[in-house]
Design goal:
The model has no long low-confidence stretch (mean pLDDT about 85). The longest helix is centred in the middle third of the chain and has 19 residues, at about 65-80. The protein has six helices and no strands. It has about 140 residues and is mainly alpha-helical. Helix content is about 55%, strand content about 0%. It has helices at about 5-10, 15-25, 30-45, 50-55, 65-80, 90-105. It has one domain (about 5-105).
């Protein structure tokens, strides 16, 4: 597992419950779920945030919301691997909340304290205005 640690999962799911889930799965299924979750986060936020830098941070320097919501996505993917038709409502709700947060962040209606992507040659000022008024 990269970016996430075992202790990150302990804040969202009981360790014995996670161990029980993983005992019936082939080795590496949690790593695949985490990789899928990270890829999903990247698909939402790659245009606005510097995710290479965000995912490279370790320990206490990581963004807590990014860690929490990535764990939610990973657990949803883990349950979907086990039984796609029998995903607990809590996991669905938390997955939906995470997706809504990342969609909002990608549109600019929600803000995450992540490093913003800088683009060479891009101006930092904002243009505003509207079309000229029509005369009917």
């Amino acid at each position: 597992m990269y970016f996430l640690t075992q202790s990150d999962f302990d804040t969202v799911i009981a360790s014995d419950q996670l161990a029980k889930l993983l005992s019936v799965q082939p080795a590496g299924v949690l790593d695949k779920a985490v990789a899928s979750a990270v890829d999903e986060v990247v698909s939402y936020l790659t245009g606005r945030y510097d995710l290479e830098q965000a995912f490279a941070t370790t320990g206490e320097d990581r963004n807590d919301i990014l860690v929490l919501r990535t764990v939610d996505l990973a657990l949803y993917h883990l349950y979907a691997t086990i039984s796609p038709r029998n995903i607990p409502d809590l996991r669905r709700d938390r997955y939906t909340e995470a997706v809504d947060l990342f969609r909002g962040a990608s549109k600019g209606t929600r803000f995450l304290a992540l490093p913003v992507k800088s683009v060479e040659g891009q101006s930092t000022y904002l243009l505003y205005g509207s079309n000229k008024r029509f005369q009917y």
